[in-house]
Design a protein that fits this description.
The protein has 13 helices and eleven strands. The chain has 387 residues and is α+β, with helices and mostly antiparallel strands.
């Protein structure tokens, strides 16, 4: 996540496959501008807007329906309330829930947020998107993650993605050169905003196709939000469904999510596949439970075991994490997590049958001190779940 500082801006500039929302050119330009500004909101704006993104941006609804999966109360964690309040204050946490064995052992809200609301995900959404790849494989829309990407996105052919597999997109090991430095005006992200896209071309595909090869596919891991954009393009083209509709069909309705979710769209009118999914705290926890249970009946057997195992070469950029799977971060001790900037996370500990979901408004997008404090909070919460 070190280089994820521009995740929102890139996602708002990209595009997926079939156009479903018409956005006027003037509004599209404004959307790009506001999207970039999200990263620089002050604390009051973050507190106010992170739980209300649907009031600022267009998007698609991920519809819930049917029987809601219950989250009954469990034995409260043996942690003094003051320690929880201190941690929430230090990390600007708006919502935190701990679910073990399917029971809620702790649930807290602050900063004007509540159980009836939704909160933005930032790059936590990447793990949702990769799950849709697994669903598309089980449904027969995608044959294998070892297929070349150009099989599903043929207009990528002739560029740096020749010979790159779906697996290498999922693991961000394509070997394609990418600069995601927000402060560099010559970065790929900055140029992606400014360049004109020919009529009839998919903006994401058109831009990504021009990127040069840096290393052999599979040999180097580099965090590339643009490649999660391509995963969204791939899923939509393979399934011929919007990401919101497919997520509703495969997870939201059958798994018993309690509330509709909201998935922001980019200026082309498509869901931003690596970002910007707004979900209630309890439904973030249910997504963790879905992963913990292996996604039975939705993804192939063994999908989550592979998705949450380190799939990439060792890299200093992984920081305090053990590795990277299929858009999931691999953590020490057999744990794994979906992690987004400004403190969003779903952490899963299979050994303890534990899910911890946090919605935050950190004062900065990333930071070693903030990450260390969150990691320490995870450890404290895990320690209190001993049975």
């Amino acid at each position: 996540m070190k280089r994820a500082i521009l995740a929102v801006a890139l996602m708002l500039a990209g595009a997926a496959a079939a156009q479903t929302v018409m956005i006027a050119p003037d509004n599209a330009a404004k959307l790009r501008q506001v999207g970039a500004e999200v990263l620089f909101w002050n604390q009051q704006q973050r507190d106010q807007n992170f739980p209300a993104m649907e009031k600022l941006f267009p998007g698609h609804v991920v519809k819930a329906g049917g029987k809601v999966r219950p989250l009954p109360a469990g034995k409260p964690l043996a942690i003094p309330a003051g320690e929880i309040e201190t941690a929430m204050t230090e990390l600007n946490i708006s919502g935190m829930i701990v679910v073990q064995d399917g029971k809620v052992r702790l649930e807290r809200y602050a900063r004007g947020y509540g159980a009836e609301g939704r909160y933005t995900s930032f790059s936590v959404a990447k793990s949702f998107t990769s799950t849709l790849v697994g669903a598309a494989i089980r449904d027969g829309y995608i044959k294998s993650i070892d297929d070349p990407v150009t099989k599903y996105i043929p207009d990528l052919a002739g560029g740096g993605y020749d010979g790159v597999t779906v697996r290498q997109l999922l693991t961000m090991t394509s070997g394609v050169k990418w600069n995601e430095d927000y402060t560099d005006p010559k970065s790929d992200v900055a140029r992606m905003f400014s360049e004109e896209v020919p009529a009839g071309q998919d903006p994401t595909v058109w831009f990504m196709k021009k990127l040069p090869r840096e290393t052999a596919p599979g040999s180097k891991w580099v965090y590339k939000t643009g490649e999660t954009n391509l995963i969204g393009v791939l899923v939509e083209r393979a399934t011929k469904k919007t990401l919101a509709d497919y997520l509703s069909e495969k997870v939201w309705k059958p798994w018993g999510m309690e509330r509709d979710a909201f998935w922001m769209v980019n200026p082309a009118g498509h869901e931003v596949s690596g970002c910007c999914l707004s979900v209630s705290l309890r439904d973030y926890a249910r997504m963790g439970m879905f992963a913990l249970g292996g996604g039975k009946g939705v993804v192939p057997d063994g999908w989550f075991a592979a998705a949450t195992t380190n799939q990439v070469p060792v890299s200093a950029e992984l920081g305090d994490r053990s590795g990277y799977g299929y858009q999931w971060w691999v953590l020490p001790g057999g744990r794994y997590a979906a992690i987004g900037i400004f403190g969003q996370s779903i952490m899963i500990d299979p050994a303890k049958k534990l899910v911890i979901a946090i919605s935050s408004a950190w004062p900065t997008a990333t930071g070693k001190e903030l990450s260390s404090k969150r990691n320490a909070l995870w450890v404290k919460l895990e320690g209190a779940t001993a049975r």
